[in-house]
Design a protein that fits this description.
The chain is built from 17 helices and 13 strands. The protein is α/β, with parallel strands linked by helices and about 475 residues long. It has a single domain, classed as Amidase signature (AS) enzymes. It has an 11-stranded mixed β-sheet, sandwiched between helices. The longest helix has 19 residues. It starts with a helix and ends in a 21-residue tail after the last helix.
Length: about 475
């Protein structure tokens, strides 16, 4: 049954369609694992057991009748910045408003494909940080080493997937928030092209930086998610075909303005990836994207700060936010509408400069992160700016793709000395998800990762302590 829990969305969909597994049994497997594992990991903010059971039973009726939908009966976890009808969207805080009356568009599409919504996953307050710890809901732990964070802001989604607590999970990515937890949780995560997967009713989140996408066990799972939520891309087919011979640029350059040092394990992962890619027949060269000086402080960070400020203005109880979040939002409030309009107007020129590397290459390869994640509680007594400086040094390679809007994916690659997964990042040209999926699947075939299991321990759902 453990093998089934880790099989992933595409395999679950096949098993359900073949009737070798029932939708209620698959859901109960996950609910049982959540009850015994999640008390220590805290990947879910809320588990929707009753409604999920009803949805699974209804899905089974449809399966028995011969109906076929891509995700019919497949349990999906939803990040808690995304509306699910009848549930609050908490944003990692007690400052939230009443329950949502309608599903977000991406949830509607998942339901239309037959998905069973199993719960809402934990996030840092207002999705600000690449660690997932809040005053309201506590800390989410990395299943690979529970002394450490799983990343963020889709940290709950990453932890749930790593621990085998859902078939696939929805995340959102404004400064790396899909790719960071995917990196440190041993998952394939992809930030699609901006606007590929709908963010409605929260369009233009963080001044256009945010994209929705999957955290998945396999490339095929991620492709299935994208086919369902972004029709017309034919992503499953892309993941199933060979990528051909690609010209790939490898870069360890950190965008100017970020102080970061790439660790030895992360450098070794990139070197191993280069060797594998050459063995697979690709041409790999050393070349850095042309990052404009000042792009981080003059462009990315203002959109980030102002985006958080705008989100906070929508909350009915902002006084309940922790002091660090309030400070972050205040900084965003100092940025005028005129300043933000000028920043957004500058985006095409910045994107054209950064993306010019794709005139000569098909993919850019970088480390997935500069280091491993922080220990739980590492930033509890720090303010907004000092926390930001420290976390940016861990994950300097993500934000640029949010500025340009281009797709990027992370591929699992070994473990660091703390037993925590690492990754390599594949940056694609605009709307180039198909190439990333095809290349990712080729790497996965040559160097599989989905069979790996974190050393999670189980606890009794009723008795404190380890069982």
């Amino acid at each position: 049954m453990s093998d089934i829990a880790f099989a992933g969305a595409a395999e679950h969909a096949r098993m359900l369609a073949a009737r070798t597994l029932s939708a209620p049994d698959l859901l109960e497997l996950f609910l049982d694992r959540i009850a015994h594992i999640d008390p220590e990991i805290r990947s879910y903010r809320v588990v929707l057991a009753d409604s999920a059971r009803s949805e699974a039973a209804a899905a089974q009726v449809r399966l028995d009748a011969g109906e076929r939908l891509p995700l019919l009966g497949v349990p999906v976890a939803i990040k808690d910045d995304t509306d699910v009808a009848g549930e609050v969207t908490a944003y990692g805080s007690s400052a939230h408003g009443p329950a949502a009356t309608e599903d977000a568009e991406v949830v509607r599409r998942l339901r239309a494909a037959g998905a069973v919504i199993v719960g809402k996953t934990a996030v840092p307050e207002m999705m600000i940080w690449p660690f997932t710890e809040t005053l309201s809901y506590g800390a989410t732990h990395n299943p690979w080493n529970t002394d450490f964070a799983p990343g963020g802001s889709s940290g709950g989604s990453g932890a749930a997937m790593a621990a085998g607590l859902a078939s696939i999970a929805l995340g959102s990515d404004g400064m790396g928030s899909i790719r960071v937890p995917s990196t440190w949780c041993g998952l394939f995560g992809i930030k699609p092209q901006r606007d590929r997967v709908p963010t409605a009713p929260h369009e233009n989140a963080w001044c256009g930086l945010v994209a929705n996408g999957p955290l998945a066990r396999t490339v095929a799972d991620a492709a299935l998610f994208l086919d369902v939520t972004a029709p017309g891309g034919d992503f499953v087919a892309a993941a199933a075909r060979a990528p051909g011979r690609l010209r790939i640029a490898v870069s360890l350059k950190v965008p100017p303005g970020v102080t970061a040092r790439v660790g030895a394990p992360q450098r070794a992962a990139v070197a191993e990836a280069v060797g594998l890619l050459r063995d697979l027949g690709h041409e790999v060269i050393e070349r850095d994207p042309d990052y404009p000086v000042g792009v981080v402080y003059g462009h990315a960070l203002p959109r980030y700060f102002r985006g958080v400020h705008d989100d906070v203005q929508m909350l009915p109880h902002p006084e309940r936010l922790d002091s660090r979040t309030r400070a972050f939002a205040r900084i965003g409030g100092l940025l005028s509408e005129r300043r933000m309009a000028a920043i957004r107007a500058a985006e095409p020129a910045i994107a054209a400069r950064v993306l010019s590397i794709f005139d000569d290459v098909d993919v850019v390869l970088t480390p997935g992160a500069a280091t491993g994640p922080s220990r739980i509680g590492a930033y509890q007594r720090r303010g907004a700016i000092s926390t930001l400086a420290l976390v940016a040094a861990r994950v300097p390679f993500q934000a640029m793709c949010n500025v340009t809007g281009q797709p990027a994916a992370v591929v699992p690659w070994g473990l660091d000395p703390h037993g925590i997964p690492m990754s390599i990042q594949l940056m694609g040209r605009p709307s180039g998800e198909a190439t990333l999926l095809s290349l990712g699947a080729q790497i996965e075939s040559a160097r599989p990762w989905a069979h790996r299991r974190p050393p999670v321990r189980t606890v009794s759902p009723t008795t404190p302590g380890w069982a």
